[in-house]
Specification:
CATH topology of the largest domain: Gyrase A, domain 2
Radius of gyration: 22 Å
CATH architecture of the largest domain: 2-Layer Sandwich
Helix content: 10-25%
CATH class of the largest domain: Alpha Beta
Distance between the termini: 59 Å
Structural class: alpha+beta
Strand order of the largest sheet: 12-13-14-11-3-15
CATH superfamily of the largest domain: Probable tRNA modification gtpase trme, domain 1
């Protein structure tokens, strides 16, 4: 038995990002409780080498070295299977009133056909999720979820509030098309109907009869779109159609780029914020409309936190030394030799030629220029608190 175990470990270790073999699904636990997206088989055919599980669904991690995928995103077009962004639909006579209760953001400022980045908070002001919300009708909304369960939370809030709403998970599977040439590709596929969309707006359309909802959104800080597939049985057809049209723009399937999203100041739920964090300490106070009419879940707590000021802050950090790999754990941060916080996300930016990331720190250690020590797995590193985002603070790139 011991010899067999050593052989298996050696075989697995040889599979690296530079390997040309597709990812071996036999290496991970699988079963019907873990969902496969409508694009899953196409990701395997394209040579995906690693997956993670996100919202109970397989999410492709990478097809090539992540640095190569980063440069491809910056120069060409990247195709991401993000059907893991499971949607929850809110509808019914009290749909609008319920959304006003569920999120701190004022839905009266969101038009039909428009999207908003929103937070879902609990009664203590803790962040439960940070979805992209789409307003399809006056009383009908979709929220595309980060990796946490909100369907049952929303049902519980609705039951407690006694509102007339229907809450369900619709047959919706997003596919992201991102990068500087994505707008030209969208023009070829859909024409002006899509390319004239303002940032965070959407439209219904189809591609060769495949029903879609296309949004001007993405998780990259680059120009990008999301194609919400409305018929899961046609996932392979949609994938093939986009890949075929994208050949002239050097389109490639890739995994989500942590390098680019950290450069852009984009947060990852579960890593950079969790239920114990509130919007003000992670720099998302702008999503909280305390003056909107009526109550919402967490309003009293968030008002108190704002009045008192947050006790913690998620800051940008630059970490000295040789290039680091993306952190798999939350590294301790020391001040004066004592642990005071943790690095939540960190990676080497080839473009900035330095190690960048985020750290959650007590407010007394969060001033710009504060010098810290990071407990990196290879040894302690000097770090400095800096401004974030690291690139394009006005988000001019994705708005172009």
């Amino acid at each position: 038995m011991a010899a067999k175990k050593r052989t298996r470990k050696t075989t697995a270790a040889k599979r690296s990002p530079s390997s040309k073999q597709p990812y071996d699904m036999a290496l991970i636990q699988r079963g019907s409780r873990l969902r496969r997206s409508p694009f899953f088989d196409k990701t395997l055919e394209a040579g995906c080498r690693a997956y993670t599980v996100y919202n109970h669904t397989f999410l492709p991690s990478y097809y090539d070295d992540p640095v190569n995928e980063y440069w491809h995103l910056l120069k060409h077009v990247a195709l991401w299977d993000v059907a893991v962004e499971r949607n929850v639909e809110i509808s019914g006579p009290d749909g609008f009133a319920f959304m006003q209760l569920l999120t701190p953001r004022d839905m009266s400022k969101c038009r039909v056909g428009q999207g908003k980045y929103v937070l879902i908070t609990d009664e203590d002001g803790g962040i439960l999720n940070d979805p992209v919300l789409l307003r399809l009708e006056e009383n009908r909304f979709w929220i595309a979820l980060a990796d946490s369960d909100i369907l049952l939370w929303a049902k519980g809030v609705a039951r407690h509030a006694g509102m007339k709403v229907a809450i369900r998970e619709p047959d919706v599977s997003p596919l992201q098309v991102q990068g500087p040439k994505s707008k030209e590709l969208m023009a070829d596929l859909f024409g002006d109907k899509v390319t004239t969309l303002p940032y965070y707006f959407f439209t219904r359309t189809d591609l060769d009869g495949i029903p879609l909802l296309v949004t001007r959104t993405g998780w990259t800080g680059e120009v990008g779109y999301e194609l919400y597939l409305l018929d899961a049985s046609r996932g392979g057809q949609l994938w093939d159609a986009v890949v075929k049209a994208g050949k002239k723009y050097n389109l490639r399937p890739t995994g989500p780029s942590d390098i680019r999203r950290i450069e852009a100041g984009i947060l990852n739920y579960g890593a950079d914020m969790m239920i114990e964090n509130n919007p003000y300490e992670v720099g998302l106070g702008w999503t909280v409309d305390l003056d909107k009419p009526g109550d919402f879940v967490g309003k009293a707590a968030l008002q108190r936190i704002k009045d008192e000021g947050p006790k913690w802050k998620l800051v940008g950090v630059e970490i000295d030394g040789k290039p680091i790999a993306f952190n798999m754990t939350k590294w301790a941060v020391l001040a004066g030799g004592r642990p005071v916080g943790r690095v939540t996300s960190a990676i080497y930016s080839p473009r900035l030629k330095g190690n960048i990331g985020y750290a959650m720190l007590p407010i007394v250690h969060a001033d710009l220029g504060t010098e810290l020590t990071v407990e990196h797995p290879d040894g302690r590193r000097h770090a400095t608190v800096v401004k974030k985002p690291f690139l394009d603070p006005g988000k001019e790139i994705p708005k172009a």
